[in-house]
Design brief:
By secondary structure, the chain is an alpha+beta fold. The chain has helices at residues 79-88, 110-119, 182-186, 196-204, 235-248, 266-277; strands at 2-6, 10-15, 22-29, 36-40, 51-52, 58-60, 66-68, 74-75, 93-97, 121-127, 130-133, 137-141, 144-149, 154-159, 173-177, 193-195, 217-219, 255-262, 283-286. The chain has six helices and 19 strands. The strands form five sheets. Strands 11, 12, 13, 14, 15, 18 and 19 form a seven-stranded mixed sheet that branches. It has a five-stranded mixed sheet with strand order 2-3-9-4-5, with helices on one face. Helix 5 packs parallel to helix 6 (266-277). The longest helix is centred in the C-terminal third of the chain and has 14 residues, at 235-248. The model has no long low-confidence stretch (mean pLDDT 94). The structure holds zinc ion.
Length: 305
Amino acid sequence: MQQRTLGKSISVTGVGLHSGERVRLTLHPAEANSGIAFRRTDLAGEMGDIIRLHPNLINDTRLSSTVVTENGVRVGTIEHIMSAFAAYGVDNVLVELNAPEIPIMDGSSLPFLYLLQDAGIVDQDAPKQFLRIKKTVEVVEPDKWVRFEPYEGFRVTLTIDFNHPLFNRSNQTFAIDFAGQSYVDEIARARTFGFMQEVELMRSHNLGLGGNLNNAVVIDDQDVLNPEGLRYPDEFVRHKILDAIGDLYIAGHPIIGAFSGYKSGHAVNNALLRKILSDSDNYEWVSFKDQDRLPAAFHDLPLAG
Ligand SMILES: [Zn+2]
């Protein structure tokens, strides 16, 4: 299997969920082995240099996964667009933006999938590198945990645990063994969600300033405030899976393994990636000349365009 980039450059405008700032985002094709990179076009001099994404650059995980470089350059809320890149197996892309935060769009990754479909996805003349988990690695905190185990595919199992009338046993766990279109069908439409009572607290920390019922599911003491309701009965846990897939793709490569978590979030997802990469006994780099040996999860990655 070969590396992938975009067929052409493509732009979109939107608003940052946390900053509330309007932002123009442009995705450009990029050379093989150049990886996923960001550039702030609104910043001058070396602040405007290309930033090659690496898990060690995720230095703010309050409510989103945000790049903060040594120079203090921020690229906020990257997890949903990263999730879309993972879905289409995009290895190399330059993401330019003229504000500190990726636009939230409708709160899901679907608008980014449409954007990638418009740009088209093309194969490149270099083998795609996969990160294969060789040993179980986990991050355990008092009230949450995440784990990656060896598995010849890509499986995600997550559990959330909210004590609220909307949540029950049947809508707080979701497991998916990825193959073909399953991300597009089962995960991509799940939106960001938040509790009304958290909104004031977030805003006092200058977070959530761009949030509204068009880009987030908002929950009060009893129910969903959005008039259109939910897109899936268990949209919340599916969105957590969308987030986790984006957070894990910050490795820059698809991961062959089984990921599971309980009350996971951006901070522990990133801690897990750093822990995996900190010891070369945990993983190996593999590529597949022979398509038959490729795990089924990656056989029919949608080829957009
Ligand atoms: Zn999210």
